[in-house]
Design a protein that fits this description.
The chain is of the alpha+beta class. Helix content is about 30%, strand content about 15%.
């Protein structure tokens, strides 16, 4: 698909996209402003995702602002293997519309954890997944953008080109993303997904890309154990060390726990960055 659309004029790209017809509605909830459809082009036998944000369902200035900026921010990030590719976008009288890469493994990363309560294994598979996610996140941050809604549902799986390889992880949904200022900071209301939000969000202070690293730490813990740290009885962030119950972590390397702890530091200034996390010793582990 990327090759088919690259190098085309605007009119040619519009004609190419017009060949894709609705195949299946993936998400369409009455009160939600977003509608997601799977599109298919019979001539090329290719699939694509069409996401529309319906203007009539935007309820306030904040949601309007996020809707207007999503496609513009995503368009800045569409040249990386670990970010879902945005092929085109436009504003119509009724909606903000985006045409995006279809990840053929869909939401199975979230499904495996949330529905089957099964951690990711073996360890090399977990390392591969985490490295992909972090690589995408480091790229997003290098472009001066905070994702601001990192969670399992916003990581999609794409089949690897080489059959033996693990699926490729791709970041998606930049609906809450923000562009940082020249100092790498922004102010932000309390938005995001409960369970993944960094503790400093919504307290009126300046925030930066470290909020994504907190969310990544929760996500990595969840991939490893199939539940979040706060699912452990009587544990609250900041009340003590991150809990690693031996029954669930005995087969995981201690360096993995160290990386998670480096992400889940209460002080955002002390939190590890995505670029530094990619150099963590855990990514050199080879045993399962």
């Amino acid at each position: 698909m990327a090759n088919k659309l690259s190098g085309l004029s605007m009119d040619e790209r519009t004609n190419c996209l017009a060949a894709f017809q609705p195949k299946k509605v993936i998400y369409d909830v009455a009160l939600a402003a977003t509608k997601v459809e799977l599109m298919h082009d019979e001539a090329s036998d290719q699939d694509m995702i069409k996401k529309a944000i319906i203007k009539a369902k935007l309820t306030d200035d904040q949601t309007w602002g996020y809707a207007k900026q999503e496609s513009d921010l995503h368009a800045q990030l569409s040249n990386h293997n670990n970010v879902v590719r945005l092929y085109d976008h436009k504003e119509t009288d009724d909606a903000y519309v985006m045409w995006m890469e279809y990840c053929d493994k869909g939401g199975q990363l979230a499904d495996k954890i949330l529905e089957n309560h099964t951690p990711i294994g073996p360890n090399q598979k977990l390392i591969s997944y985490a490295e992909d996610i972090l690589t995408g996140l480091a790229y997003v941050h290098s472009e001066g953008i905070i994702h601001a809604d990192m969670k399992l549902e916003n990581v999609l799986k794409q089949s690897a080109e080489v059959k033996e390889e693990y699926p490729l992880m791709k970041l998606c949904d930049f609906g809450l993303s923000k562009k940082m200022d020249g100092q790498g900071n922004i102010t932000m209301p309390k938005v995001g997904t409960l369970g993944y939000m960094a503790p400093e969000i919504g307290k009126g202070c300046l925030i930066d890309s470290s909020i994504d690293m907190w969310s990544f730490g929760v996500l990595l813990y969840e991939l490893s154990a199939a539940y979040k740290p706060t699912a452990v009885k009587n544990y609250k962030y900041g009340s003590g060390p991150i809990p690693f119950r031996n029954v669930d972590w005995r087969k995981r390397d201690k360096t993995l726990q160290d990386l998670i702890e480096a992400c889940l530091v209460m002080d955002p200034k002390e939190r590890i960055t995505a670029a530094d996390a990619l150099q963590h010793p855990w990514f050199s582990e080879e045993t399962d």
